[in-house]
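Bumping with the actual sequence this time:
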Amino acid sequence: MKNLKQVLFSSFCLGRLLMPLHADEMTGGQFILTKDLLGASGSASIASADFEMRFSMEEPASGEVSTAAPYDFMSGYQAASFGAGVALSVLSMHIGQPEQPTFFQDGIQVGVALDAPLTIRFSDQLDERTLSNGIQAIVVRDHEGLTGYATAAFTLTHDLAHHSITITPLNTWAGNTLYDLMLSQQIRSVDDMPLELPVHVSFLTLLNPHENNVVLSPSPAGVLGVQELSSPPITVHIPRGSLSEYFVVLTGRDPQSSPMRVNPGIIQEANTKAAQEGGAYRTPLSVQEIVAYNAQGKALGPLAQRAEISLSYNTSAASWPMVVRPHTLSWWALDEVHKLWVKLPASKPIAAVQSIAAPVTRFAVFALMGSPDGSAADSFAFPVPWRPYGPLAGSSPGQSGTEAGGITFSNLPSECSIKIFSLAGELVRELQHSDLGGLLAQENWDVRTTHGKPVASGVYLWQISSSVDTKTGKLLVIR
């Protein structure tokens, strides 16, 4: 094939309209000219040196014949193809009417109106015959958070002039439903070029106030077209009638850096007060801002029915503070007026799934925090008897201990005192325990007095006291 310095395309008319002669110029490089006009007669033939190309509809080639080397050109009704002759791709997409506010969460558009159209613009003219089999609307998740992957009915309008299609629901989209519009490579241009890659357009509709709703954020891993995030999932159960109008719920996992509604300075001041009161035990493990907006973007107020929020946690994560015991976790709500955290008394840990749930009457900023564990109810001492020189001496379970290992008090409150008394009531030794400065929930006694002398064989009493309660027990020392 020769290099073509210039290719002249002549076009006389399309359909019944006579068009004026026009020319497009292409210079440099090699050009491959192929016949690709749908419904055209004639043929394209390529010789070793010259090109002969005929395009005509319903009658032989007409017009002048160019014989100038190195090509023959016979004009007809269209001396070119309709398409651009390049790979087909999606240029842009828009969900909803232009005047409607848009909301995004975790990489997808949420709060989509139930009658919203989807307009998708392509890089080239489409072969309309390929659209019906190339597009599917899938219901990925319903309003109660259940996955199903059922198909949804829709109507399709093809805008030939703008290379676009508009998809609208057959009736309406379902409320609080995650849809995945799938465009497959069955879609082709008029040049018979397939869509470069399959395309997923995911969106979540407005919540219907007349239904029970479940909001999941982020969406479960593996949902088609949805960005996967490593953030711990938060779930919001909203009973019907909680709000009076269609709405969208947005969650912000970092309101101090990316606030939606609340001033980050208020959150920081509340954190400072919590640390002054509870130290490291009262450090927020997660802060979530939850806001409900109506379709016009107005923040909505209190709920008429109690909703429930729950958050998963992972005690094995590297960021987990060891001083926080999972059973002390609670939800705390931000009091914006007084700039402090207020504990939600109905918080309930669900240990089996590592989750904390609590009922709420309004959406706000919430923190997941622990507290010092003040209960001594499960505290105990081992080994008893302590006999470091007996036949069972050793540090393994069931053995009677060693001088180096001493006696261990376990399952202690986060902050407490341990007192050892003789049977006569004399204080032998007092220890102070804090999870912040030693073993978690454990403290070791070297079986020595306050003055560092080994205690004599005999029976001793111990007492563990915290800010919540006190527990006592006995020890037997045999030397």
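The tokens above came from a reply further down the thread. The mean pLDDT is 83.
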